[in-house]
Design a protein that fits this description.
Layout: H1 2-15, H2 20-44, H3 52-59, E1 69-71, E2 76-81, E3 84-89, E4 94-99, H4 111-119, H5 122-125, H6 133-145
Antiparallel strand pairs: 1-2, 2-3, 3-4
């Protein structure tokens, strides 16, 4: 019954000119940028996050050598919070949130964070101007179900 409801809702959304290819592209960009930022954060502290022990040092709350928030570069700030690390571009007001599971690829899509990202990128703003995170979650589920993006298991 829920699947049918989601299917019907997505069908209505498709009639509202949702371009799944744009959302697929946004997810690819989001994942790539998050991965690059995490690698740069590791490099900042002399860690190779492809090595499990280095990655654990980077994200560990008990590691006093790595501040939980700070400046990654002149343009980017970072902040660990919960099971995520948020990056904020000061010049462009871009927001990228990385869910810290499945390193070094990461890639888990949280619709709330994806919406914030898309709203902070000129290229995608218009696509999500009338959308909340619940509707975006349905679009992401549609992309998973039709194989356009691969789901990262939590």
């Amino acid at each position: 019954m829920i699947k049918k409801w989601i299917h019907n809702l997505l069908k209505k959304e498709e009639n509202n000119n949702i371009n799944l290819d744009v959302f697929q592209e946004a997810i690819i960009d989001y994942r790539q940028e998050g991965k690059e930022l995490m690698f740069k954060l590791g490099e900042k502290y002399g860690l190779n996050i492809e090595i499990k022990e280095d990655y654990e040092k980077l994200i560990s709350r008990s590691n006093k050598n790595i501040p939980r928030r700070g400046e990654l570069s002149k343009r980017w700030n970072y902040s660990f919070h919960g099971g995520e690390c948020g990056f904020y571009n000061k010049k462009h007001q871009k927001q990228v949130e990385v869910v810290l599971i499945n390193p070094p690829e990461f890639g888990h899509i949280d619709s709330w964070f994806l919406l914030s990202y898309m709203q902070s990128i000129d290229k995608y703003k218009s696509e999500v101007s009338e959308m909340d995170w619940q509707k975006l979650k349905l679009v992401v589920e549609k992309l998973y179900s039709n194989g356009k993006i691969k789901k990262v298991i939590e």
